[in-house]
Amino acid sequence: MVCWVRTLLFISVLVPAFVECRIRHYHFNVVVKNATKLCSTKPIVTVNGTFPGPRLYAREGDNVLVRLTNHVQYNVTIHWHGVRQLRTGWSDGPAYITQCPIQPGQNFLYNFTLTGQRGTLLWHAHISWLRTTVHGAIVILPKKGVPYPFPKPYKEKVIVLGEWWKADTEAVVKQATQTGLPPNISDAHTINGHPGPVPNCSSDDAYTLHVETGKTYLLRVINAAVNDELFFKIANHNLTVVEVDACYTKPFETDTLFLGPGQTTTALLKADQGIGKSLIAISPFMDTTVAVNNLTGIGYLRYNHTLAFTPTTFVAIPAVNATPVTSVFSDSLRSLNSKQYPANVPLTIDHSLFFTIGVGINPCATCFNGSRAVAAINNVSFVMPTTAILQAHYYGINGVFTDDFPAKPAIPFNYTGTPPSGVQTMNGTKVYRLAYNSTVQLVIQGNTIIAPESHPTHLHGSNFFVVGRGVGNFDPEKDPLKFNLVDPVERNTVSVPTAGWTAIRFRADNPGVWFFHCHLEVHTTWGLKMAFLVENGRGPNESIEPPPSDLPKC
């Protein structure tokens, strides 16, 4: 079969060539580059010198090869967020979960196939806080000749949302770890790397989306922010959502998108306003008493032939605590559930799990107040090992992890009521073991210990169906009666509402070790993470592939 081979060079030039294959080659060189934003310059870690990093384009079914070479002082890994990695967990990327990190001066070939997936995803560093600037888009086009299940757009545009710190974020997280205090919040939000106009800086470094009157555009919107859930709006324009997390949805129209870190939303934009310039705004969501960067990131939608000094049409952004806006958006998402793209929701369940998630306080003799902020699932703060768990599992190395992660809290309590007197967590490197092809129902319950908060949670290695959500404590008798088991949205990252719960279902048909964690980097750092260990099935087609010969060593 004839296909494109795309080779991404060090200078970020994409060189295409026709060859007889379905392999896409990329070269990712991790390098430091000076960047100027908010009227100040600092060195940042990048891939191929760009922020955001290079876009990875492929088609469903393609084999993707990414040679990553580390030219910086930090250890590095890359996670292909949302790529299922069927039997190729060695290429999933989370440091010390599926691989040891790529050390300075070393390289590694990520090798995976895009099986049964099409749409918008992202890649990002998965060690420390390097993903602040080490991230980019993944665009998976349908197979050749397969149309979109929605009207074909005139053009497609990738829009990556992010956060920017004036300080070095590695220094920010190091200071927070030493003091035990929460890390400093970011200084700006960015649209394709541009913060737009901000206070105390005269530079209007803003992204502009150029459109032609009467045309329809497909916007691939990605939240690559580190700690902020974000609203996305364009003045005087509605958007029709057609896909989230590389899963098609029933189309619905909205004027506001809501994305947690790690989530993607693909939407159709009709350029139906004639000439003019409209504001694009991204703003944070936080409906609790947690500090957040409340600056709005600004960009512009500009119609062709608009005069230079045409006034901008402004947009009303949602309030920072606009919980109803997030609920309406989340409740509007439904799987397409067509004959070609069915919603295969597990109807019988082998493992019924109940995870409480939240933050706590542990003693710390060397910390600022004699205590340290931590986070936990079922009161277990995850401790990162020094050997990758997948390697320990594959080679039978003892002492790296235990498989006794609790299926439910050891001591039930009123999760969204008055917190218990003890706020200390236990530490451990624990996984939950699943037989191949078993089905899982997981209720993720937010708690109010220290402070309730919305938690965007991400599962590696599988998509899941969001069958229910609500506020308050999950009722195991009444709430399952309201589950949507017909066309629930399918995705890889979902927000658990503040002092509320979300129920998901998935099938464990991908052997390996799969990280499950809050995608707010602050909470991941504090320990709000665990892993599922999915055992091999029968025969090689139901077993993880052998590790590659160049797998990094710890």
TrEMBL record:
<keyword id="KW-0479">Metal-binding</keyword>
<dbReference type="GO" id="GO:0046274">
    <property type="term" value="P:lignin catabolic process"/>
</dbReference>
<keyword id="KW-0439">Lignin degradation</keyword>
<comment type="similarity">
    <text>Belongs to the multicopper oxidase family.</text>
</comment>
<comment type="function">
    <text>Lignin degradation and detoxification of lignin-derived products.</text>
</comment>
<dbReference type="Pfam" id="PF00394">
    <property type="entry name" value="Cu-oxidase"/>
</dbReference>
<keyword id="KW-0186">Copper</keyword>
<dbReference type="GO" id="GO:0048046">
    <property type="term" value="C:apoplast"/>
</dbReference>
<dbReference type="Pfam" id="PF07732">
    <property type="entry name" value="Cu-oxidase_3"/>
</dbReference>
<dbReference type="InterPro" id="IPR011706">
    <property type="entry name" value="Cu-oxidase_C"/>
</dbReference>
<feature type="domain" description="Plastocyanin-like">
    <location>
        <begin position="32"/>
        <end position="144"/>
    </location>
</feature>
<dbReference type="InterPro" id="IPR034289">
    <property type="entry name" value="CuRO_3_LCC"/>
</dbReference>
<dbReference type="InterPro" id="IPR017761">
    <property type="entry name" value="Laccase"/>
</dbReference>
<keyword id="KW-0732">Signal</keyword>
<dbReference type="GO" id="GO:0005507">
    <property type="term" value="F:copper ion binding"/>
</dbReference>
<dbReference type="GO" id="GO:0052716">
    <property type="term" value="F:hydroquinone:oxygen oxidoreductase activity"/>
</dbReference>
<keyword id="KW-0325">Glycoprotein</keyword>
<dbReference type="Pfam" id="PF07731">
    <property type="entry name" value="Cu-oxidase_2"/>
</dbReference>
<dbReference type="InterPro" id="IPR034285">
    <property type="entry name" value="CuRO_2_LCC"/>
</dbReference>
<dbReference type="InterPro" id="IPR034288">
    <property type="entry name" value="CuRO_1_LCC"/>
</dbReference>
<feature type="domain" description="Plastocyanin-like">
    <location>
        <begin position="156"/>
        <end position="305"/>
    </location>
</feature>
<keyword id="KW-0560">Oxidoreductase</keyword>
<dbReference type="InterPro" id="IPR033138">
    <property type="entry name" value="Cu_oxidase_CS"/>
</dbReference>
<feature type="signal peptide">
    <location>
        <begin position="1"/>
        <end position="21"/>
    </location>
</feature>
<feature type="domain" description="Plastocyanin-like">
    <location>
        <begin position="405"/>
        <end position="537"/>
    </location>
</feature>
<keyword id="KW-0677">Repeat</keyword>
<dbReference type="InterPro" id="IPR001117">
    <property type="entry name" value="Cu-oxidase_2nd"/>
</dbReference>
<keyword id="KW-0052">Apoplast</keyword>
<keyword id="KW-0964">Secreted</keyword>
<dbReference type="InterPro" id="IPR045087">
    <property type="entry name" value="Cu-oxidase_fam"/>
</dbReference>
<protein>
    <recommendedName>
        <fullName>Laccase</fullName>
        <ecNumber>1.10.3.2</ecNumber>
    </recommendedName>
</protein>
<dbReference type="InterPro" id="IPR002355">
    <property type="entry name" value="Cu_oxidase_Cu_BS"/>
</dbReference>
<dbReference type="InterPro" id="IPR008972">
    <property type="entry name" value="Cupredoxin"/>
</dbReference>
<dbReference type="InterPro" id="IPR011707">
    <property type="entry name" value="Cu-oxidase-like_N"/>
</dbReference>
